[in-house]
Design goal:
- With 203 residues, this protein is mainly α.
- It contains ten helices and no strands.
- Helix 1 packs across helix 4 and helix 8 runs parallel beside helix 10.
- The chain starts with a helix and ends with a helix.
């Protein structure tokens, strides 16, 4: 694709001998805040359903990833080709119902196969691989989902009528935390750790 090749050339130029001084000073660690910021800006565009902004922010995120790969190439760690090959192989390996001869009847079958494949890849328990830097709320939902699947239990009954209803309930809980002098993020993070530890001790 011409546009993709052009973007790679731009990255090479910015990181080249006559490139941008700021770009050439960057490392993986210095780029972490920008990657996080770009991701949140994309999430904001999705929440606002702003398609024009979404296109722009997707481009920013896409370039940030290319920039990281180019840094790796400069340091002889890995190449863009190797990166693309790795994800292609993973997608094919984890979708045997599409690229192989495995038969599935539902999305539940797909998820079960997915987890079994990850076990064969060396995954030791269902919550392994959840990024520790996730905000507590996102991590809690991920942990609950993974543990429910691992225990093969149905979802807990819910009386929520809409996402807006959920948002209001969460907002009320945060209000209570604020009024009581508690940090909601820390409290939820500790709750996650407790349930994760209980699962780890039971296996």
């Amino acid at each position: 694709m011409k546009e993709f090749e052009e973007l790679l050339e731009i990255a090479d130029t910015l990181l080249g001998p006559n490139g941008c001084p700021w770009d050439k000073k960057q490392t993986y660690n210095t780029l972490k805040p920008y990657i996080l910021e770009e991701t949140h800006e994309l999430l904001e565009a999705i929440d606002l359903n702003d398609l024009g902004k979404m296109k722009e922010e997707l481009g920013d995120c896409f370039y940030a990833l290319i920039f990281l790969v180019k840094l790796a190439e400069q340091n002889g760690i890995f190449t863009l080709t190797e990166t693309l090959r790795t994800i292609s192989e993973k997608l094919i390996r984890r979708h045997p119902h599409i690229f192989g001869d495995i038969k599935v009847e539902s999305t539940d079958d797909v998820i079960r196969n997915w987890e079994e494949i990850k076990k064969k890849e060396g995954k030791k328990n269902p919550i392994e691989g959840i990024p520790p830097t996730l905000p507590a709320l996102a991590r809690a939902q991920k942990v609950i989902l993974k543990l429910r699947r691992a225990k093969n239990t149905p979802p807990a009954p819910s009386h929520l009528k809409s996402e807006e209803d959920l948002g209001e309930k969460l907002y009320t809980l945060v209000q209570e935390a604020e009024s009581s002098g508690f940090d909601a993020e820390s409290a939820l993070r500790r709750a996650c750790l407790k349930h994760e530890s209980s699962w780890s001790m039971s296996i």
